[in-house]
Here is the input.
Amino acid sequence: MTQAERRAYLIGELLKERHERFFLPEEEGEQKRLLRALFNVRGPLAASPEFLEVQDAYLREEIASRGVTSARDIEPVEGRLCIRQGDITTLECGAVVNAANRRMLGCFCPNHGCIDNAIHTFAGVQLRLFCASMMGGRLEQTGGARITPAFNLPCDFVVHAVGPEVRGPLTPGHERLLAAAYEACFRCAEKYRVRSMAFCCISTGEFRFPPGRAAEIAVETVRSCIDRYPWMEKVIFNVFKDSDAAIYQRLLG
Here is the structure.
């Protein structure tokens, strides 16, 4: 099957699952948006082997077409610490960190721009089902993290970290919880001796933690943690925005 044929098949199967009439937009970009939206709103349900085979082939080719970066090719800027600007779903490394919410089920908002949405979209429907089974209806504590397989992402694992949500002024309690989320990611990585881990900017998006202070806490916490994990070869601060790249470059020289 071509990518276009896979995309049409997946859209058809997901609409059938929702008992909706089949509709395939003419433009490729609109087809991709529709497919992503259908992935986003789908609950944590099992899928047929046939569906998964087509989905996996489609997602892996989509990721490859956007260009995959290997952690091996990223040079440290300080000790074992690195900065990378780009899409975290195209990073080949031991684990990427997802800014999750307490339900740990991903973002259900169609085509939302958050990292939680992107990671669940390109990992595939298996990730939401795995997370639902792992959580069993419970909520993760703020400052906690869980590790899961990455399924179709080029990394080996996803560490889902729950940072604090800032409503009103920033407090020392928010800062402690953000540091705790970074520490929890290291503990998750330790279980599988993950050799490279890429952090997103936890809590700075929908959770409204000020980016500058969040980066300071991230760098301070990672510096204090990494010596306890000598087998970890690289920690990557993966940023997307130019403004975040400038902050980390300032902090790490």
In short: The longest helix spans residues 172-191. The two ends are 48 Å apart (CA to CA). DSSP finds eight helices and eight strands in the chain. The CA atoms of residues 42 and 218 lie 33 Å apart.
